[in-house]
Write a structure and sequence with these properties.
25 strands, alpha/beta, 17% strand, 6-stranded mixed sheet
Amino acid sequence: MSLRLLPPLLRNEPTVADMLSAGSVAVAVPEAAVAFVVAGLCHLGERRPVLVVTATVADAERLAHDIGAFVGDEATELFPAWDTLPFERVSPEVATMGRRLELLWRLGMGPGPELSRPDPPAVVVAPVRALLQRLGPVDESAVPVVVRRGGQVDQAALVERLVALGYRREYQVEHRGELAVRGGIVDVYPSTGDRPVRIDLWGDEVDRLTAFDPGDQRSVHDMADVVLHGCRELVPTAEVRRRAAELADTEPWGRAHWERIAEGQLFDGMESWTPWLADGERLLPDLVGPGGRVVLVDPRRIRDRASELLDEEASLAGALAVTWGAVEAGSGSAEQAFPRLHVSFDRLLARCQAPVLTMLPAAEGPSTPAVSAHGWDPVFGDRARLAGRLAALAQDGYCVTLCAEGAGSAARLAEVLGEEGLAVPVVDAAAGGDELGRPGIRVVVAALDRGFVVASAKVAVLAEADLTGRRRPHRVARARARAVDGFFDDLAPGDYVVHRQHGVARYAGMVTRTVGGASRDYLLLEYRGDDKLYLPSDQIEALTPYSGGESPSLSRLGGSEWSRTRAKARAAVHEVAVELVNLYRRRLQIEGHPFSPDSPWQSELEDAFAYVETLDQLRAVDDVKTDMEAATPMDRLVCGDVGFGKTEVAIRAAFKAVQDGKQVAVLVPTTLLAQQHAQTFADRYSGFPVRVEMLSRFL
């Protein structure tokens, strides 16, 4: 549920009124209330967008999460920083670059019809690292491709445009940024999408547009349109190619890379050459016009973090300039040999036309205006104390809102307060009306990281984390095309592995490369002809164990042999698939017991889960429950490493079966696991009339 009715109550806070009327001003705002005050500026003011600057990525993610609860997730965007070091010859995540390009497009960068450009978000939250980074030549790549069902599309032109935006052609789409063409069908995995999209063409007309599952390639649902944002912030435009050709002559130490870019090639790590190929010093704050607003949250920490970033980049530049042969060792000019990816802090807002609001964590003097707010003192497990504090606030005319993560948690919170003599209603999104803005106490379902009390506005908000002490992560786990295999634990130098793009290699061990004081772990892969590939450890999922024989032939980097091998494997897989289809066709003829759809108790049990489910976990739960409700016997195996959430899948499936009057047996391999699982099941079912017993060799 959105808490949009609460920020307008800040109209009674005099300091907020001064912020709205003044231009650039410094105000003391306690950390717990920063998100609420920013939301109040959006609701009560007319300036758009509001650019909120934080010192770290974690601060930006938390703040964006809480601001979204007050103004709506659709009105809040996080501008992420690259997840790579400057000059590191590794490309950032496709999803990261896609989100950045999407936001740049919404803020007005790039040519195109303005009627099709969406409005900019009301709030943009960004860590200082993302804002100090120079924007590359993204004027063309920022413009997305829009495909609508029933529209006219030239297939050849569409594919050419997507390739120009950085999409990579593959036989089958499995990862973000991939593209596949089969006859009149174009499959593409958008850089900003959760699922790939299938564009079915009838001539030049888009006959059908569907999202599909990358695992089984089956369509999931129809779509009216899709917006395909770019996958790379550096693409070989005519101007980029011209500059790369010039650099091949003036900077011979990097000729091999300059020539590849000059030829129009796309390759991993090409974004690391952005400082040489970027045009001028364009930053995201330059796109915020006079009608917007900039908010610096704790400017001292922001400036310190900016200084650290610049020092790290200078050290990296100095070390790499010598390593790559740009300058001679001991020349004294190594740190000045390379252009910089990040600019100084003084340049950050130099060309920004919007007024700047500085939010200090505490007043620096008696003349500094301050918002009279504070966070909640710990109340872990003290029900009576919590009920007393809430009752006192309500008697003083406060609008008190208790935020629970789910419907089950909301109901239990209201029940606990009721046992303490405090009747508190649970307000839902559909029937809430304007009740949230009135004095009194109510419980809502809303995810919030921290609560606060604003005395002058008579507003108090309590987050579930203030009660439990658990802070829920805001990052949603990325979808994987396959599970992370357990072979990495036993991977030893000399073992053979398969890289999904480069083929069979010999693993030579982990290598820690320290450049300019910044260290990073790499997997060293050896290929034919003494070729070597340093794979960052966070990209390990690109590898699979080799299982074809004891002494395979190594692939050659950049060769075509691996592509031919993959084609042969696809043909063999096709034959196996035909056999499996025939097998499962026979299985579908067997009748089974269809379980009932989810009940309210099922929803309450699932809402009471104390952690954020991973995408794979949610998918497993949905698939298992779908199987249970079908009229055919279940035939499914759920796989996952220790700690990946398999038990929770079993808990929900067993509960669903019990509600149909069935008895469920959970079989485990050891007595210790039997005891642990019995306790886990009993704890999860404690609020329901379900009996859990254990049977082992000790009983």
